């Protein structure tokens, strides 16, 4: 998959050391990521790496490893960002790269404005609906509508406002329904309607759909 990512039509590639890696595979994933980052080859794509959470043993080892290849990445994605201190730990350990804070807990949402302004290296705030649903007790995966309406409107808009206040991007989280193209399209359209700049995908089949939704139409270009 890493080799394939060098040829995909995504604007950004993120190597993940966190949720997509089983606990027993963390060390191997970390070594693989370092080797691949040193190899490079992603062209003009933004290259990012998601480390494990601040304060965890895997997270500490991630920071040591990523610091050694920081020249090969554009940004570090910080999972479960909940405080200014979380960002400062990453910023101190890995200098000279951008920071993307993943807002996916109740505490993170409450502290989102402070997180956004923790350092001028914050380049994006990312809405993480899956873990946020678990944190809040919402019986939903991604942003699928539930009875009673859009439960994520408040979270999305608060993250957006915090991002815009510091000049950062607002990025929507992924859709986990890999074979549901219409679900991906409607979710991307909703995020764009909310003012978001882009959307994460977790499968190559979702890239073209999200690119299409977020690309301006001819009419929008003429109006601009």
Structural notes for this entry:
The chain has 11 helices and 7 strands. It is α/β, with parallel strands linked by helices. It has a single domain, classed as Phosphoenolpyruvate-binding domains (TIM Barrel), CATH 3.20.20.60. It has a 7-stranded parallel sheet. Helix 9 links the parallel strand 6 and strand 7. Helix 9 runs parallel beside helix 10. It is globular and about 45 Å long. The termini are far apart. The model has no long low-confidence stretch (mean pLDDT 95).
Features of the shown structure:
TIM Barrel; 11 helices; 7 strands; single chain; globular; 224 residues; alpha/beta; 43% helix
Write a concise synopsis of the structure shown.
The chain is of the alpha/beta class and 224 residues long. The chain has helices at 2-5, 26-39, 57-67, 84-93, 106-110, 112-116, 129-136, 153-165, 181-193, 207-214, 218-223, and strands spanning 12-16, 46-50, 75-78, 98-103, 122-127, 169-172, 198-199. The relative contact order is 0.10.
Instruction: Strand order, main sheet: write it out.
Output: 1-2-3-4-5-6-7
Query: What is the typical, i.e. mean, pLDDT?
Result: 95
Shape: globular
Q: Indicate the radius of gyration in whole angstroms.
A: 17 Å
Report low-confidence residues grouped into runs of 5 or more. none
Helicity level = 40-55%
Please give the CATH architecture. Alpha-Beta Barrel
> Quaternary arrangement of the chains shown?
single chain
Counted by DSSP, the helix tally is 11
- The name CATH uses for the topology is TIM Barrel
The CATH first-level class comes to: Alpha Beta
């Amino acid at each position: 998959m890493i080799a394939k990512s060098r040829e995909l039509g995504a604007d950004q590639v993120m190597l993940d050391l966190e949720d997509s890696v089983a606990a027993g595979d963390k060390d191997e994933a970390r070594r693989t990521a370092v080797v691949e980052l040193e190899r490079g080859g992603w062209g003009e794509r933004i290259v990012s790496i998601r480390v494990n959470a601040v304060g965890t043993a895997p997270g500490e080892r991630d920071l040591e490893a990523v610091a050694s290849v920081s020249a090969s990445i554009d940004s570090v994605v910080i999972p479960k960002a909940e405080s200014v201190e979380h960002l400062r730990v990453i910023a101190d350990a890995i200098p000279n790269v951008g920071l993307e804070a993943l807002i996916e807990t109740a505490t993170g949402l409450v502290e989102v404005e402070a997180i956004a302004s923790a350092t001028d290296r914050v380049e994006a705030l990312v809405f993480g609906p899956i873990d946020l649903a678990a944190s809040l007790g919402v019986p939903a995966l991604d942003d699928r509508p539930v009875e009673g309406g859009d439960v994520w409107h408040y979270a999305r808009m608060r993250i957006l406002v915090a991002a815009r206040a510091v000049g950062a991007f607002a990025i929507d989280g992924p859709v986990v329904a890999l074979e549901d193209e219409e679900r991906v399209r409607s979710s991307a359209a909703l995020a764009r309607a909310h003012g978001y700049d882009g959307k994460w995908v977790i499968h190559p089949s979702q890239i073209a759909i999200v690119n299409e939704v977020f690309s301006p139409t001819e009419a929008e270009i003429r109006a601009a």
